[in-house]
Amino acid sequence: MVDYSDEIAMYKLLAMSVWKLTPREYMDINRLAREERLTLFEELEKLWNIKLGQEEKIPLDEIEDIENPIIEKIFNADSIAGVTNLLTILQSSILKVKDNRPMTEILYEFVKSSGYLDSFVSEESADGLFAVSNIQKFFESIKKYEKDNPDSNIYEYVDFIEYCIEVGESPVVDQSELEDFNAVNILTVHGSKGLEFPAVFLVNLVAQRFPSRNMSDSIPMPEDLIKEMLDKKMSQEEAHIQEERRLFYVGATRAKEKLYLSAASFYGDAKTKKKPSVFLYEILDRDVAEEFNFEKGKVSIDGYEGQENTSIIPKEVKIELMKNFSYSQLDTYELCPRKYEYAYVLRVPQKPNASLSFGTTVHNTLKDFYTLLKTSKEGIEGIVSEPTLEELLKLYNKNWVRAGYDNTKHENMKKEQGEKMLKRYFERIYSNDETPLDLEESFVMHLGESTFAGKIDRIDLIQEDNGVKQVCIVDYKTGKVKKEADIKKDLQLPLYAIFVEEKLGYKVVSAQYIFLEEGVKIEADISQKRREKAKERMVEIIENIKARDFHAEPDMFKCGMCDYRTVCEFAKT
Ligand code: SF4
After folding, report:
1. Is 447 helix (H, G, I), strand (E, B) or coil?
2. CATH for 354-546, among 3.30.310, 3.90.320, 2.60.40, 3.90.550?
3. Where exactly are the structural domains of the chain?
4. pLDDT, tens digit, for every residue of 320-353?
5. Which residues line ligand 1 (CB under 6 A)?
């Protein structure tokens, strides 16, 4: 905990079993924090009437003796004791950090006073011993870091760990003893360096997975290698394959007796058939394409019973689910029901993120810009001249949202890209023939006991027929262009078309997604059949939510982009 405003880290901390907090209590405290516009940390401080780390010394009995009817209403006696203990430890840790005490001392107090260490010791199982051994290794790793970096501090150490994890190393896992456990160890190739096992399974041996497509190499290259690349005039792509080949070699040579190489023609729900990895051809020294001709099908393992995966909150805990849904909520559920549970049931706040800020900036800019166009067409307030590119860019600067960028350099880079994107939009997509009727039109549709709310970016008039306005609805997207198959499955514009006809009385004759980054306009299918399907699917999702089906649907791509990957037990990263 080096950043007390990091809500996901705070959730992870509070979810530790040692504090005995139930999901119900977490939800209540989280709701209170949101109502009062406080972070979870600030809410706890407020309830316990303390300011951690501000005063030189808070008598511990002041934390322990707190009497607050709200605390008693939300928490049971065990969790009051648990949270009190947590706050006491945090107070002491914050003062120690300020005092520049060694990290090992701070961590030891945490694992000991919280009961975390003892909970594993008392388990007397192989898992418990393994956990204790890992904690021990973690201490050693910190000690070594402190020795190598005497002027460093806890913040830099956390950056160091994050960096290690990003490049596939895990400094906190007791690697050496992995070999001794009679169990299946799942490791990254980076994480397996220096280890050996009787049998090794190298998986994902298909093109674009291993070797991976991702060429962003955050590990600095040794100078000799850069020289080798320059000498051999190697392209960036060739250098990437070389690096992946080295990794493949590391993975393959971990096996003492048996090495299994595995690959599949199809992964998950993907429709595209995969090709075998180039490394399979190389290591087997034969053409493996023929052997790789499996039909798509499901592999099942007899006798395996899947882990219960439908909800974090036990079914017996009563919770009040939302009755009002927005498109983005349903979209989150479609993406991964477990993500929906984190975001809209437990309401663990997501980090401010650059894509969200950028999207808000661009949507507000285009709204203001088209308002100028609309005003000029209607001749309101004497404005008749149409808006210019300069005005568009001025509005962009005015609407710029700063939150969520990694640093000023990142922010400036994104801002510049956005300017280019809008210039392209103005030159290629914008036309002063467009007649905007409504901008950012909000709506609510009733569906039994639930409601569905949305906001339509733009509704343009195409023509009028017998007094009925025929319109086109437009939705701006700031992300990458979606695949045709995904656009076909998309529920958003068919649902919006239903609303526009039912509530506004227009006739929707077309609907378009505009992918701004790539300057592409894509027509959506809003046929009657599609609208019915979209409505059916929406009702189905709402039913699943009511039935509390929040199973995880992990995949590398989704989890890689998910804020909850650090707390989700099913995350694939
Ligand atoms: S990490 Fe993956 S599985 Fe977990 S909630 Fe996020 S998307 Fe779903």
Report:
1. strand
2. 3.90.320
3. 7-166, 184-292, 354-546
4. 777 788 888 998 999 999 999 988 888 887 766 7
5. 336, 338-339, 342, 552, 554, 558-559, 562, 564-565, 568, 570-571
Non-local (6+) Cβ contacts of 238 within 8 A are none
266-274, Cβ contacts within 8 angstroms, sequence gap of 24 or more: 266/296, 267/206, 267/209, 268/555, 271/485, 274/206, 274/207, 274/208, 274/209
Q: Ligand 1 test: best mutation among 310, 332, 333, 336, most atoms within 8 Å of CB?
A: 336
226: tokens are 């850069």
Q: Which of 202-206, 412-416, 438-442, 483-487 has the lowest mean pLDDT?
A: 483-487
Q: State the distance from the centre of ligand 1 to the C-alpha of 571, rounded, in angstroms.
A: 5
- By alpha-carbon position, which residue is closest to atom 3 of ligand 1? 554
pLDDT at 471: 96
Q: Mutation test of ligand 1: which of 559, 561, 567, 569 has the most ligand atoms closer than 8 Å to its C-beta?
A: 559
Please state which architecture CATH assigns to domain 7-166: Orthogonal Bundle (1.10)
Average pLDDT of span 38-52: 87
Q: Which residues, listed in sequence order, are joined to residue 444 by a DSSP beta bridge?
A: 453
